[in-house]
Amino acid sequence: MAKAFFRLQKFLRRTQFLLFFLTAAYLMAGSLLLLQRTRLVIQQGSRGTSASQALDGMAGAGIVDPRTLQNPHPGPRLLVGMDAMQEPALDQWHSPRWLVSRNSELRQLRRRWFHRFISDQEPMQTGGFRAMKHTGEHKGTYMGCFSDDSRERTLKGAVFYDLRKMTVSHCQEACAERAYTYAGLAFGAECYCGNKLPATASRPEECNSECKGQKGSVCGGVNRLSVYRVQEPWAGARQRRNVIYRGCFRAPENLTDTFPASLIQPNLTVEMCSEFCSKKEFPLAVIRGRECYCGYPTGGFSLHDSADGALCHALHNASSTTEGKYCLVYQTPVQDTRCTDRKFLTTKSKVFVALSSFPGAGNTWARHLIEHATGYYTGSYYFDGALYNKGFKGEKDHWRSRRTICVKTHESGKTEIEMFDSAILLIRNPYKSLMAEFNRKYAGHLGYATDRNWKSKEWPDFVNSYASWWASHVLDWLKYGKRLLVVHYEDLKQSLIPKLKEMVEFLNLTVTEDRLLCVENNRDGNFKRSGAKQKDFEPFTQEMKDLINRYILTVDEALRGRNFTGLPREYVPR
């Protein structure tokens, strides 16, 4: 008996030692693997792995949404999760060819963010503050390091973000184009413009953030601004600054009460008045005879009711009975800053609101309007680095954090829709939406696809797949949405303030009229397409039109069936 017990005790000791050894070996192997992977990520970041290379590798692993890789054959329900659900009859014409796992996509977005984070931080770890300098290829004068108070910011005339390629020269050029005297950089990626130096100077070593796009150069620090005086452009360049004629308007009864700054100058010109108002940091230059006034659009001077231009030209006629009643209004290069301050919600939102649309329906533009009207960031179901670099800081915030006023999504399907408590459903003419999304796929948010793209076989395949997605997206939100506000892109564009006010009220917020007028004054933001626009041609064949028109009629009928306003008459087939 004692012998058997001894054998059992010996076996247990050996087993305990074996388990301990296996556990230690497992932990060591895991640690080595983690170190190896971290080293690989840092090496990739230091080599500047491009987004396209990263995406190619992800595609090989089978975890990337093929739409991101510009798959010419996307299905109409590309972003739907793995839940199977009964589709409307129209989906039977073009059923999805594959579905994408949302969990895989979210995991990949986190990986992409981590790679970029490592890439951004590595130069700072190796370079250090001593390697950075204030002098470089830029031509401005370095004024010093200053404190930056976000609540009482001195350089607030214009704000730009570029979290990948910000340089001192880029910031100076952007401020110079808008007639500002000083350019300030903070956090290595943020650019601020203004005509007054900040009041509080800081120690030089406190500006220690390296510019994201220029190794060895200083771009401010945490709540610190590296301030430069921009080089004064030559006279010809000043004349070419973006001064926009807004029209002829009836002058307010008391101009000095309406406008904070004024100038009386014999032989007054548009350039002289615009330059004066730009230096005063006002977005409007108002001319009445030899009088120049500077200010903002207000309730008493909203710029909504323009007059006949001949009435303003009659001001130069001394015998005219209209003298003094009308004025010329110009938009200066200066940005209206009354609505540019934005922040995250201080407490988590109790209502989870979606800003839902089909791709190409103006979601980014609507986010720009909502953020500037409410003063709060919008979130996104996805991560778009290009939008984050343009100032949409909610892009990097987790979409379910509830720290944003609403969340962008192109998703449809029962599960994806029922996650939200309410939604603003943005609908746009499918012809325009399809063209806008095709432009985005081949030229980014602000570019245009080439003639070669339009004439390729990808365009017909794109229309066949995406047209049904446009319809099914609306139908799903009408079917599963809990509380909806339907906004038509065309109505928002035509009647911006009334529609935007309706959207803000849906979000349970109130805003001042001056803030809404500021948004209207900055309505385009940085999201208007530039470059060579497509020539006048008809990209849609008759077969495509017949297909799209059937979807339009189906969606129009569904909207009216839910007691919503039908689609705008301008594009509903008759």
UniProtKB/TrEMBL annotation:
GO molecular function per UniProt: sulfotransferase activity
Q: Which UniProt keywords apply?
A: Repeat
Domain of life according to the entry? Eukaryota
Q: Does the keyword Repeat apply?
A: yes
- Give a yes or no for keyword Coiled coil in this entry: no
| Residue intervals passing through the bilayer | none
* Record SMART domains: WSC
Q: Which residues form the WSC domain?
A: 139-231, 242-339
A Pfam family found in this protein is WSC
Q: Which family does it belong to?
A: Belongs to the WSCD family.
Name by which UniProt lists this protein: WSCD1 protein
Q: Which gene encodes it?
A: Wscd1
